[in-house]
Amino acid sequence: NSSDEEQEPAETVKKPRKNVASKDYLPEFRSGAYALLITLLKNEDEQDEINNYMLKSQLIKEAQKHSDAQFVSHDPKNHYTAWNSMSNLIKKNLVLKENKLPARYRLTDTGRELAKRLWHGSSDSNENETIFDLDKETFDKKRKNQNTLFTLLPGSYDIILFIDNCETNAKKQDLLIDEIKKSGIKHEFGKLHVGDFTWIARSKNASQTDLVLDYIVERKRMDDFCSSIIDGRYKEQKFRLKKSGIRHSVYLIEDYGSMKHMSLPEKSLVQADVNTQIIDKLVVHHSTDPKDSAYYLIHMSKFLMEKFKNRKLYDANQTYLMTFKEFNEFSNKNKPLSVKEMFAKCLMKIQGLSQEKVLAIIDLYPT
């Protein structure tokens, strides 16, 4: 067997290193480091004290379930994977590597404490937020200092389609809005800092804050889709959708004439479509015209009404949902940036630097 585990030399167990600023270290939600810590913690719960270790192969297999980053690279030109985070965890004394044959990995006391904080969604870290922190951990930290926890009981709330104001500013949008109005589904207009459509749960007696359901839609007409690829908005919008804290993101692409008459080759547009689904793991839905787009949004609204009609909704960790105010506040791209945030945004503009690579760089060099 030529596995990595069997190739590692037999050595004595390394002594745990001194804590290297691990107290202030907080992995990004669903990053490689996050997934490794959570996986090792769950393994400890299932094993006794002697066998609470994991081998590299099984650790990679289980950790992938908790990570958006890939642990195995299928690109021969890109050797960076989520597994690279392991060296940083070992350096920070969060994971102990026993160089037996094969190598064994287990949590240190410090790593176990951090993993439990990540799993339960709470943190006392005062580290500056970055553009990569628009996720569950950030909202939980903010909410910890705000007594806003509440519950919406089944039947006590309405599901409302929330439409960004920008979708009503042009005559070409009239047909879509008209169809939504004709359908009779509850909807309203307002400002969204990310996406064009989302769904909110609102208490019928207006006594609670609106909660944002885990569904968001970014709508692109084919000519605008083409333009966004050329000017870079396409990459930025996908990134912000993935980091919005909403789990189910949909790219709604609306046809507009023949793809052969666009400013990019048809092959490039098809490739961008496929990349969005395979690499970015976003749902892509194609519609034929504004009317067809409206039908999709109407059916989604009815689906969500049916799905949530008997569900209790929490503004809490056990069933994570953001309030609408939190969602819009943290997804605002025009908020003041820290030095670390600005550095990360600059790195993202460099050809070939993926989100995972930028995260690794700013982790070592914050400024």
From TrEMBL:
This is Crossover junction endonuclease MUS81. It is found in: Nucleus. Its main location: nucleus. Interacts with EME1. Keywords: DNA damage, DNA recombination, DNA repair, Endonuclease, Hydrolase, Magnesium, Metal-binding, Nuclease, Nucleus. Belongs to the XPF family. GO terms for biological process: DNA catabolic process; double-strand break repair via break-induced replication; mitotic intra-S DNA damage checkpoint signaling; resolution of meiotic recombination intermediates. It comes from Brachionus manjavacas. It is an enzyme of class 3 (hydrolase). The keyword Kinase does not apply. GO terms for cellular component: Holliday junction resolvase complex; nucleus. Gene3D superfamilies: 3.40.50.10130, Crossover junction endonuclease EME1, DNA-binding domain, Winged helix-like DNA-binding domain superfamily/Winged helix DNA-binding domain. Interacts with EME1 to form a DNA structure-specific endonuclease with substrate preference for branched DNA structures with a 5'-end at the branch nick. Typical substrates include 3'-flap structures, D-loops, replication forks and nicked Holliday junctions. May be required in mitosis for the processing of stalled or collapsed replication fork intermediates. May be required in meiosis for the repair of meiosis-specific double strand breaks subsequent to single-end invasion (SEI). Its cofactor is Mg(2+). Transmembrane segments: none annotated. It comes from the Eukaryota. Its EC number is 3.1.22.-. Residues 1-21 are annotated as: Disordered. GO terms for molecular function: 3'-flap endonuclease activity; crossover junction DNA endonuclease activity; DNA binding; metal ion binding.
